[in-house]
């Protein structure tokens, strides 16, 4: 009897897992778009997120972030942060720009910020991914204070500018999506445009190790509490008359220099940055397995300037 119950439980668990894998949890199409008949696209509705920045929502989010989110993150990875003294140079809202290779990047950035700044920080999130269903949209808005942006063309959302005007910091991942192999992709000009248009500084951030800890395609970090480093740089401002097209490469170069510093030392990386010789962070011209192998190599040992996680 006992053996039969155990076998029944195992079979039931296997069936539930199989159904869960095949269940259509969202509204994403199940067939390639090229195989579907063409229809005129419907005008999309914007999921409202203003409620997520009310005092009550901020209080709930603070409890979630400092409680279970922080505990889970520290249990799964070994995060460390450096360069927070750069944030002391701010005297108002800023645009925080970072490379993006993992779903870990958002909680890593949020929980590395000082509490006062964290509570006034919002994240730009892809409308077609995080806001395609109401439960995913509501969950990301309340936990991470996200707002939707279109990453496949169209007009730039007015929400980032409104948030900056209201004193909120805005986090933008200029690559538009997670890197498939951990190396930096081309930076788009949205962050540079916002900085120039609203005359706010940009805080560059280099995140290293998040791809190895939780690469694209995984739903949970790999075992072993892998190291992940978050490094903040000094604020950047667009020069008078500088266009977003000219400012964007400076932002990308600053993020690349921070990643270079993680791989070498502060002195060496600054010397290379001063003469424009920082190594490219777009990766080697090689097969994908070779590029992935490079980005999943063990992290270098920490130094005295890096602070352990909260």
Features:
single chain, 310 residues, alpha/beta, Glycerol-3-phosphate (1)-acyltransferase, eight-stranded mixed beta sheet, 8 strands, 12% strand, transferase
Question: How would you describe the overall organization of this protein?
Answer:
- The chain is of the alpha/beta class.
- It has one domain: Glycerol-3-phosphate (1)-acyltransferase, CATH 3.40.1130.
- It is built from twelve helices and eight strands.
- Helix 2 packs across helix 3, helix 8 (190-198) packs across helix 10 and helix 10 runs antiparallel to helix 11 (266-274).
- The longest helix is centred in the first third of the chain and has 22 residues, at 55-76.
Q: Helix/strand-derived class?
A: alpha/beta
What gyration radius follows from the Cα positions, in whole Å? 21 Å
- Counting DSSP H or I runs of 4 or more residues, the number of helices is 12
Q: Which architecture per CATH? A: 3-Layer(aba) Sandwich
* Strands, total number: 8
Mean pLDDT: 82
Measured as a percent range, the helix fraction is: 40-55%
User: How far is the first residue's CA from the last residue's CA?
Assistant: 51 Å
Strand content: 5-15%
Largest sheet geometry: 8 strands, mixed
- Return residue spans where pLDDT drops below 50 for at least 5 consecutive residues: 301-305
CATH class division: Alpha Beta
Q: Could you say what the CATH topology is called? A: Glycerol-3-phosphate (1)-acyltransferase
What is the helix/strand order?
HHEEHHEHHEHEHEHEHHHE
Globular, elongated, flat, extended or rod-shaped: what is the shape? Answer: globular
Number of domains: 1
Q: How do the strands of the widest beta sheet line up side by side?
A: 4-3-5-2-6-7-1-8
